[in-house]
Write a structure and sequence with these properties.
elongated, 9 strands, 6 helices, 20% strand, alpha+beta, single chain, 41% helix, two-stranded antiparallel sheet, five-stranded antiparallel beta sheet
């Protein structure tokens, strides 16, 4: 092979090499562009979601009672129209009122103080009346009101909800609202208080048996003149007779269940009944 032919071969190899490098670089560039466009799309989606959440936050914040000095503000999300229409309410609880309840005796819950549990049904509180009046204006029947108030106290795994967590002492409804939760007895006291303020007849239910955690369960039962019409079919129904009147089971911790529904993990329990 002559010098000229060798030079041509080398030149061709160089050109081919540069073409290959160019193709690789172009492919790499295209991949970077696609990845960039994908990231831009995700960023725009996140920005859109952030703006929606921000707008929703201000909407929730503005849909509240007037905040007062020396108060703690508590916002709770709840649903009317049988868990289909979302609302929120913001309560201003005076520090002094919370402290007054917090400084009271708080015995451990047990069968020995079952009847004294009615002392925790503080239905004459102004804040309780505000909650009931607000939710009553957003509902269209006594059954919907009872279920909306039940939804209000149930644990939704939201930041702005009355959460379930174990407690060792009884709590007053004002404490439950400020502390945003408690045990099954805490939720039941709050619901019974709201329902009593709304004019319903209510029972506190104390289980004779213990659950898998070794603890007794506390729930409520609500008197309706007629059977509830909006119970969920997947749950069996449960009712109790007290003073010749029928009361329907209401689970205050499990979101989604309605008045009359008996969730699976409570179906083998029997209850003592305490009127409030």
């Amino acid at each position: 092979m002559g010098v000229n032919e060798l030079s041509k071969t080398v030149a061709i190899l160089v050109i081919v090499s540069w073409l290959l490098i160019g193709l690789v670089a172009y492919s790499f560039y295209n991949n970077l562009v696609q990845e960039y466009n994908s990231l831009v799309g995700k960023y725009n989606e996140l920005a859109h979601n952030y703006n929606e959440l921000r707008n929703r936050y201000f909407e929730l914040w503005n849909n509240s009672f007037i905040h007062e000095a020396n108060c703690t503000a508590v916002t709770i999300v709840y649903y009317t129209n049988y868990t289909t229409t979302q609302h929120s309410i913001t309560l201003s609880v005076p520090y002094e009122k919370y402290d007054a309840y917090h400084e009271k005796d708080h015995p451990h819950w047990g069968e020995d103080n079952l009847t004294s549990s009615t002392n925790y049904i503080t239905y004459n509180e102004t804040i309780i009346s505000q909650i009931v009046a607000t939710i009553r204006n957003q509902t269209h029947s006594e059954e919907e009101l009872a279920n909306a108030l039940l939804d209000f106290v149930q644990d939704k795994n939201y930041a702005m909800s009355v959460r379930y967590y174990p407690t060792t002492e009884l709590k007053y409804p004002i404490e439950t609202l400020v502390e945003m939760g408690g045990d099954c007895d805490t939720h039941s006291f709050l619901y019974a208080t709201l329902m009593k303020a709304a004019g319903f007849k209510v029972l506190l239910l104390f289980s004779n048996e213990t659950l898998s955690d070794g603890l007794h369960h506390v729930a409520t039962a609500v008197h309706f003149e007629n059977p509830p019409e909006h119970s969920i079919s997947e749950y069996p129904s449960a009712s109790f007779i007290y003073n010749d009147e029928k009361y329907y089971f209401a689970e205050t911790t499990m979101w989604g269940s309605r008045v009359g529904d008996l969730p699976e993990n409570f179906k083998d329990l029997t209850f003592q009944m305490v009127p409030v």
